[in-house]
Design a protein that fits this description.
It is a single chain. The protein is α+β, with helices and mostly antiparallel strands. It has two domains: 278 residues, Nucleotidyltransferase, domain 5, CATH 3.30.420.40; 209 residues, Nucleotidyltransferase, domain 5 (2-Layer Sandwich). Helix content is 38%, strand content 21%. The protein is built from 21 helices and 26 strands. Strands 1, 2, 3, 6, 14, 15 and 16 form a seven-stranded mixed beta sheet that branches. Helix 18 links the parallel strand 24 and strand 25. Helix 5 packs across helix 6. It is globular, with a radius of gyration of 22 Å. The termini are far apart. The structure holds adenosine-5'-diphosphate and 5-O-phosphono-D-xylulose. 5-O-phosphono-D-xylulose binds next to helix 14 and strand 20. Adenosine-5'-diphosphate binds next to helix 15.
Length: 533
């Protein structure tokens, strides 16, 4: 094994909702550098809250595309200042929050191709986007377009059978359709449409990067079995989409060398390769080296639950995506919009903004919360589609408030009962040896993970590095270099760190939560009905 200054490095980025993060691994898969840029506090000129702008209609949610570009400038400058030797980086890959769309303006490809190394990206790309505010995954403003798409393909289930999901408002195809219908001038001024992931890869390549199969599965446009754009979906969405979306490629593809801009400005080697970027949840699956039987729970801005599956069986709830690491496999995904930001709101209201006091409230209240159950949907939830705050006492009577400690437990229990209920509807069942792998910002909180373990009745494991999407991106960068020769992802990453056991279920929990789950399911039905009346 080589040592010293020439040892190869692999760089993994994650353009997530609230921040841009990076992990650099050496060939032993040990992290040698980690860094990040928080959008709200480090780029205050964009005035985001939690990385986004919520518009006056309460449904439209966007992020400034130039904020993501500027964050990359800032991150690379930080890494340079920290002394990272970019010439050792053999491959770069990355991930992005899923579903978000970037609309490149006519002429942008020439600008990308001729970037001047003396200037930052942000200044040079200012005029390269036809839409400055990119729709992101929190958006729920394309309801009409969803209905139209389902009608055009023969119903919600038919759409799910083709694309892995019924129509969802945040899915990119429906956002593209909305742009075409409401701002046709901007649509016509667009020469390419990227996902956040392929947009970020394009910056590194100096030309437009292909969308990968796995993140492409979150658009309501890709046929997940043939792994090609679905003609019927493209036609129902907007004109000229074959040209605007470009090709779709396996997630393990090497897209090309890093552009000369990065060679001259930061000292990357000309031979450094860019491996297709993908969605943050697929990248997390790679970072956690998920095995069949495991369930991953990501507690980031969104909460997500995902599983490795061999056979796609799309349904009206949840999503099936092509696996990011194995062309023959798939992953099932559930997404919950009211995750960390709702936990932060309750922390601020009930425990004076302190995670320590929030944790103490969990420790001081019993599993089952003496029968109190809560649903906390600050924003229209994705799974299930309901909104509002609903609290029930042990007699199933709706009440207007809980005391602070009960409120904290009701929130966390309600969130995890929902994660389990919907994961079971997707086919997940707890068997002996089942592991829950936790990741994302809130996985740093052991008391939250204890509730997760109690409710799933399974041991919870986590990685030291809570950002598994970055880690997975660095793994994928390394794997991309050898994937063509048939080496499997798992062979390449077998030396990687094993997730560590964080907590096991408390003895009494199984009985408490098996009962509670039944009540929760009935109450959820009531909440759903009241949300739709
Ligand atoms: N100790 C903690 N306990 C609970 N939640 C936490 C803790 N530390 C951070 N978080 C949550 O992690 C969230 C960020 O998670 P992260 O996975 O980095 O987000 P994203 O990748 O979506 O930008 C924050 O919004 C915060 O609420
Ligand atoms: O919409 C989804 C998945 O379908 C979200 O999970 C986004 O991918 C955002 O991820 P985070 O920033 O919360 O990690």
């Amino acid at each position: 094994m080589s040592s010293g200054p020439d040892r190869p490095l692999y760089l993994g980025l994650d353009f997530s909702t609230q921040q841009l993060k990076v992990v650099v691994l050496d060939e032993d898969l040990s992290p040698v550098h980690q860094d990040g840029v928080l959008f709200d506090s480090e780029l205050p000129e964009f005035r985001t809250q939690g990385g986004v702008h919520v518009h006056a209609d309460g449904l439209t949610v966007t992020s400034p595309v130039l904020m993501w570009v500027k964050a990359l400038d800032l991150l690379l400058e930080k890494m340079k200042r920290a002394g990272l030797d970019f010439s050792r980086v053999r491959a770069v890959s990355g991930s992005g929050q899923q579903h978000g769309s970037v609309f490149w303006r006519r002429g942008a490809s020439q600008t990308l191709d001729r970037l001047h190394p003396d200037q930052n990206l942000h200044l040079q790309l200012q005029d390269s986007f036809s839409v400055l505010d990119s729709p992101v995954w929190m958006d729920s403003s394309s309801g009409q377009q969803c209905q139209d798409l389902q009608a055009a393909v023969g119903g919600a289930l038919r759409l799910a059978q083709i694309t892995g999901s019924r129509a969802y408002e945040r899915f990119t195809g429906n956002q593209i359709s909305k742009l075409y219908q409401s701002q046709v001038d901007k649509f016509q001024d667009t020469e390419r449409i990227s996902l956040v992931s392929s947009f970020a890869a394009s910056l590194f390549l100096g030309h437009y990067a292909a969308i990968d199969y796995s993140d492409g599965s979150g658009m309501n446009l890709l046929d997940i079995r043939t792994k090609s754009w679905s003609e019927i979906c493209l036609e129902a969405t907007a004109p000229d989409l074959h040209r605007l979306l470009g090709p779709v490629l396996p997630s393990t593809s090497v897209l090309g060398p890093v552009s000369s801009y990065f060679v001259h400005r930061y000292g990357f080697s000309e031979s450094c390769r860019v491996v297709a970027f993908t969605g943050d949840n697929p990248a997390s699956l790679a970072g956690m080296r998920l095995r069949q039987g495991d369930v991953a729970v990501s507690l980031g801005t969104s909460d997500t639950v995902f599983l490795w599956i061999q056979e796609p069986r799309p349904a009206l709830e949840g999503h099936v995506l092509v696996s990011p690491v194995d062309l023959q496999a798939y992953m099932a995904l559930l997404c919950f919009k009211n995750g960390s930001l709702t936990r932060e709101r309750i922390r601020n209201q009930c425990t004076r903004g302190s995670w320590e006091c929030f944790s103490a409230a969990l420790r001081e209240t019993p599993p089952g919360n003496n029968g109190n159950i809560g649903f906390y949907f600050d924003r229209m939830e994705i799974t299930p589609p309901a909104v509002g705050i609903h609290r029930f006492d042990s007699n199933d009577s709706e009440v207007s408030r809980f005391c602070p400690e009960v409120e904290v437990r009701a929130l966390v229990e309600g969130q995890f009962l929902s994660r389990r209920l919907h994961a079971e509807r997707l086919g997940y069942c707890i068997i002996s040896g089942s592991r829950v792998l936790a990741t994302g910002g809130a996985s740093a909180n052991k008391d939250i993970l204890q509730v997760l373990s109690d409710i799933f009745s399974a041991p919870v494991y986590s990685l030291d590095l809570s950002n598994s999407a970055c880690l997975g991106s660095a793994y994928r960068a390394l794997h991309g270099l050898v994937a063509e020769s048939g080496v499997s992802f798992y062979d390449v990453v077998k030396k990687g760190p094993e997730p560590q056991l964080v907590c096991t279920p408390q003895p009494s929990a199984e009985q408490v939560y098996d009962q509670m789950l039944k009540r929760f399911s009935q109450l959820e039905e009531r909440v759903l009905q009241s949300s739709h009346t």
